């Protein structure tokens, strides 16, 4: 009888340990809570509007190729194999969450007299097109990092002529090998990207 009780206790401990580990990559719907995360940016103080800021800018919707077009939080633990956390998701698709941040970055740059979102009926001088290539957390032996790549192109609306294009690519270490660690790394990357985008747009306008 005592042997059966000890065996039952060991099984209960093993189940409890497994349950604690499940939320990292998904797990039992009865025990694992769903978590949602935001891409956010604490913008710096807006720059003074430049006297040369005479043009208006449209921020076109950010496009993303599958499987990065949805709200799944994606990760890789082996080469060429992409998976999604079962109980950890973005609040919206990262591409969609980037759009208001792109508007804020352009407004804070001081480079444009007016910045408008897609769907606005205002006729603008310029358009910013963006393509998110990937956003994924990578687990390798003894390391965890986040990879993010996005291409931007500034276009003259009247002539359909590109004024400049640039690929931004980042690899940021995670402070924790978990979805939460990936979220924090993603937000650090997005902050760097939006700051560097302002410099890139200034260079494109000078051309």
Structure overview:
It is a single chain. The protein has 207 residues and is α/β, with parallel strands linked by helices. The protein folds into two domains: 1-33; 35-206, Rossmann fold (3-Layer(aba) Sandwich), CATH 3.40.50.10610. The chain is 31% helix and 35% strand. Strands 1, 2, 3, 4, 5, 6, 7, 8 and 9 form a nine-stranded mixed sheet that branches. The longest helix is centred in the C-terminal third of the chain and has 28 residues, at 179-206. The termini are far apart. Residues 1-27 have low confidence and may be disordered.
Topology diagram in text:
Layout: H1 2-21, E1 35-37, E2 56-59, E3 63-64, E4 72-78, E5 81-90, H2 94-109, E6 114-117, E7 126-140, E8 143-156, E9 161-173, H3 179-206
Parallel strand pairs: 1-5, 2-6, 2-7, 3-7, 4-7
Antiparallel strand pairs: 4-5, 7-8, 8-9
Helix pairs in contact: 2-3
């Amino acid at each position: 009888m005592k042997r059966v009780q000890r065996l039952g206790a060991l099984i209960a401990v093993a189940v409890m340990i497994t349950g604690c580990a499940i939320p990292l990559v998904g797990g039992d719907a009865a025990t694992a809570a769903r978590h949602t995360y935001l891409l956010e940016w604490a913008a710096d103080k807006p720059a003074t509007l430049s006297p040369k800021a005479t043009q208006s800018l449209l921020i076109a919707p950010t496009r993303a190729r599958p499987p990065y077009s949805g709200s799944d939080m994606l990760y890789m633990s082996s080469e060429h194999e992409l998976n999604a956390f079962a109980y950890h998701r973005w609040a919206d698709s990262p591409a969609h969450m980037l759009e208001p941040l792109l508007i804020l970055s352009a407004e804070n740059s001081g480079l444009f007299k007016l910045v408008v979102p897609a769907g606005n009926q205002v006729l603008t001088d310029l358009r910013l097109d963006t393509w998110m290539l990937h956003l994924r957390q990578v687990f390798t032996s003894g390391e965890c990092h986040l990879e993010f790549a996005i291409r931007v192109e500034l276009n003259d609306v009247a002539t359909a002529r590109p004024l400049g294009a640039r690929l931004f690519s980042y690899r940021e270490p995670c402070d924790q090998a978990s979805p939460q660690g990936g979220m924090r790394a993603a937000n650090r990357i997005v902050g760097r990207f939006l700051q560097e985008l302002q410099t890139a747009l200034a260079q494109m306008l000078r051309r």
